[in-house]
């Protein structure tokens, strides 16, 4: 049998087994449970619902306060994290069903993640910081292969890669241009940085931040004057500000501003 068809059949069979197990469980409940046990189960479910409602309300308030005050304090850590893990996926699910703009929710997710990251001990020496860039920042007519090696850029000024390379040379951080999310994950796994400063669109950044949860990722959104994935750009001054905020050595952080 075809390999793909065989794996589909295995998953379908597993699903039948799981549904069958539930059918057996419900039959058991129907046969042996008394009205008193039903009432207890309902009481537990009611309490659980109230606890979840209170937790989500706390997460909502904490995220609101964090965005308004532009900082996450120690008391907000747990509810903000809960909001990122629980409320954001739900909000994305609902916007998907309603066919609304998901990038707004993703952008908020990235903003809150950045506040969350900046609330911790984030200053690192340059060699521990990785600057991750999407290849769509490069001018599409450029013939120099900067993917994988940004030093091949000739700083001709036709795209922002040249300015970013200057920033990289000044600060000593490692910068890598990648072709997509899979390549980004591979590079992070191979280099094992302690902090990632990443440029990407809302979708790629939100997915990347969720995927690389063990390493703090500070996100900067790209700009797309020519539509998605071609000749995109980034506010290099904003990128420099973000980099300065995570560099351990103040002289390096100041150098670019002098
Ligand atoms: S700045 Fe660098 S990457 Fe951009 S077009 Fe010029 S040589 Fe190519």
Description:
The protein is α/β, with parallel strands linked by helices and 258 residues long. The protein has 2 domains: 35-115, no CATH class; 123-255, 3-Layer(aba) Sandwich (Rossmann fold). Helix content is 59%, strand content 9%. It contains 9 helices and 4 strands, in the order H-H-H-H-E-H-E-H-E-H-E-H-H. It has helices at 3-32, 35-69, 77-97, 102-118, 161-171, 181-191, 202-211, 236-246, 250-255; strands spanning 129-134, 174-178, 195-200, 217-221. It has a 4-stranded parallel beta sheet, sandwiched between helices. Strand 3 (195-200), helix 7 and strand 4 form a beta-alpha-beta unit. Helix 2 crosses helix 3 (77-97) and helix 3 runs antiparallel to helix 4 (102-118). It is globular, with a radius of gyration of 24 Å. It starts with a helix and ends with a helix. The model has no long low-confidence stretch (mean pLDDT 90). The structure holds iron/sulfur cluster. Iron/sulfur cluster binds at residues 138-139, 142, 144, 146, 153-156, 158-159, 161-162.
